[in-house]
Design goal:
By secondary structure, this protein is of the alpha/beta class. The chain has twelve helices and twelve strands. The longest helix is centred in the middle third of the chain and has 16 residues. The chain is elongated and about 75 Å long.
Length: 335
């Protein structure tokens, strides 16, 4: 009886294929090309295994891609999902959106969902522990979208969150703002931790210590009321913020409403920067200065990358980091 870890690694060394691909062959995935399956069988024979002892015949599958999000309340995901649906459709795949928290109590249930739906692949937006990501990848082709779990072997599509945040805070500093409140998302997500690092780095370079009284976090759904209450609390401090950097345009809108609640002017008294460049940033009065993410590119690339992996193109298993743009609007621009 061979140990699973030893067998997979041995086959990988002989065949030149990835362990994830070999795992999919043993899991009877229909997504592996027959040529690849033959390479695995040949390598098994070369290391002394008897391929006939194993049932490696593929199971039938549907051309279904699961797009898994931690919450459907965050409007940032909408254009990414739409772009992924359009890109997948061009290749004959159907995208189904699923809201599921992939944590240690939910990973087995999520794996069962993948098996029952016979999904061809999965796009993951959640923050997921590396060992759980590897379990998913061993079961099905996967791509991480919007976040970047660098210890994982799963490719991702993301932005340089740290650099984008640092640039936004530097801009506020260039306007003469010294007390910059920071409204972050849940630090279980890598993007939130990276943006916090960018915020802190910009302050450090300016010789301004981080004041924990000016830092708050909200959940993954970017709840408006929670953010507004947190910003209103900061604005009651004896040395109140003269600016807010928020990691979502929804949170930036909450910061503006908090300022208005105390008859403060935006941007004269309080400047505000958001993140994402979703529709609300253009609808607010004042319009919101924001870090524009290339959401259509993110969604399209995630789907295109996943389809290539599904269809056996291992050369596509590389990660992509896209550029952002700071869009200056009325919430920081004094006319």
């Amino acid at each position: 009886m061979y140990s699973k870890e030893f067998t997979y690694e041995s086959i990988a060394n002989v065949s030149g294929l990835s362990i994830a691909t070999i795992s999919r062959v043993f899991n009877k995935s229909p997504l592996v090309r027959e040529e690849t399956r033959r390479k695995v069988i040949k390598a098994m024979a070369e290391i002394g295994m008897n391929p006939s002892d194993y049932d490696l015949q593929p199971l039938p599958a549907d051309n279904l891609i699961l797009f898994n999000v931690p919450t459907l309340k965050n409007p940032f995901y909408s254009p990414i999902i739409s772009a992924s649906i359009a890109a997948a459709r061009r290749h004959g795949y159907t995208v189904v959106v699923n809201e599921f928290d992939i944590d240690k109590t939910g990973i087995e249930a999520f794996l069962r969902i993948l098996k029952k739906t016979r999904a061809a692949g999965v796009i993951i937006v959640n923050s997921v522990d590396t060992k759980f990501l590897e379990a998913i990848s061993s079961s099905i082709p996967a791509v991480i979208c919007c976040d970047d779990e660098t210890p994982s072997s799963i490719p991702f599509v993301t932005i340089d969150n740290r650099r984008a945040a640092e640039e936004a805070v530097r801009y506020l500093l260039s306007l003469g703002r010294k007390r910059i409140g920071f409204v972050n998302g849940p630090e279980t997500f890598k993007y939130a931790r990276s943006r916090a690092e960018g915020y802190q780095e910009a302050l450090r370079k300016a010789g301004i210590p981080t004041d924990r009284n000016l830092v708050t976090s909200v959940g993954a759904d970017m709840d408006f009321d929670t953010a507004k209450a947190a910003c209103m609390h900061m604005l009651t401090l004896p040395d109140r913020p003269d600016a807010f950097f928020c990691i979502s345009d929804v949170l930036a809108a909450a910061a503006i409403k908090a300022a208005f609640a105390y008859d403060l002017r935006v941007p004269e008294d309080v400047a505000v920067i958001g993140f994402d460049d979703i529709l609300v940033s253009k609808m607010m009065n004042p319009t919101i200065t924001t870090v524009r993410q290339p959401t259509l590119q993110i969604g399209t690339l995630a789907a295109e990358m996943l389809v290539k992996i599904i269809e056996g193109d291992e050369s596509s298993q590389h990660s992509v980091c896209l550029d952002t743009e700071l869009v200056i609007r009325e919430s920081t621009r004094i006319v």
